[in-house]
Write a structure and sequence with these properties.
With 160 residues, the chain is α+β, with helices and mostly antiparallel strands. It has helices at residues 57-71, 82-88, 94-121, 128-151; strands spanning 7-10, 23-29, 34-38, 44-48, 52-54.
């Protein structure tokens, strides 16, 4: 029924596409009723074939574009004006602040992706590589938020 390279959309328990939509590519056929999916962030998971449906390339690209657009969203708790920090802290270079800000956005994205995966697939089905990225993001977010906390005391430092 499915073959390696097929593009699919993940379904919820009512056999409706998840909202927001999650797309994947069939990476490997495990059995008659299970396949290994590669998600947009290059993580993989095993899934039963009744939990997704095949879509065409055009719909896949459109939904993948929406996924990428959602991932670029800045964390609500750290929407800051880089110029404000650069003007108040002349010893810090503007590009240094911007670089750490981008790192923080990446870490927030990984943490949100992990939470979504745990809700969808459970902690037992998280790949080793993604688990490593999650632990790296936990340490990284503490580091970046500590940097911003030193510049502005109103930014909290998370404790994990």
């Amino acid at each position: 029924m499915y073959k390696s390279g097929d593009k699919v959309i993940i379904l919820d328990y009512n056999n409706k596409p998840l909202d927001p939509a999650v797309v994947a590519v069939v990476e490997d056929i495990i059995g008659a009723d299970r396949v290994r999916l590669r998600l947009p962030d290059n993580a993989c998971c095993m899934e039963f074939t009744n939990r997704f449906e095949k879509i065409d390339d055009q719909k896949y690209e459109a939904l993948l574009h929406n996924v990428r657009k959602r991932e670029k969203r800045v964390a609500v708790d750290l929407q800051i004006d880089i110029r404000k920090f650069a003007s108040k802290h002349p010893r810090r270079r503007k590009d240094e602040i911007f670089s750490i800000f981008n790192q923080d956005k990446h870490y927030v994205s990984v943490l949100n992706a992990y939470d979504g995966r745990v809700q969808m697939y459970g902690e037992d089905n998280i790949s080793e590589r993604f688990l490593y990225e999650y632990k790296d993001a936990l340490a990284g977010i503490v580091r970046t938020r500590t940097f911003f906390h030193e510049l502005d005391n109103s930014i909290p430092v998370p404790e994990f």
